[in-house]
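Predict the 3D structure for this chain.
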Amino acid sequence: MQFIDFTTDHLTYDETKKKYYVEIPSDQLGDGGIRVQQKQEDGSFAGLECDIEEDFDTVTITMNEPADFRVQF
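Done. Predicted structure below.
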């Protein structure tokens, strides 16, 4: 399984929805499923409550609060 790590610097704030999001080109993630995990203070990773929207060329991950996270694919 491969992964990409993101920090809060990668997130954009949507003022109308009051949420943070990042868009990732689908070709970077391949055809399999993805899993999103939040980076903990001790450096480990645990589940992150977020919304994942996939379309033909983009995967959008949306969350209520900014967080450092990992996308596994």
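The mean pLDDT is 95.
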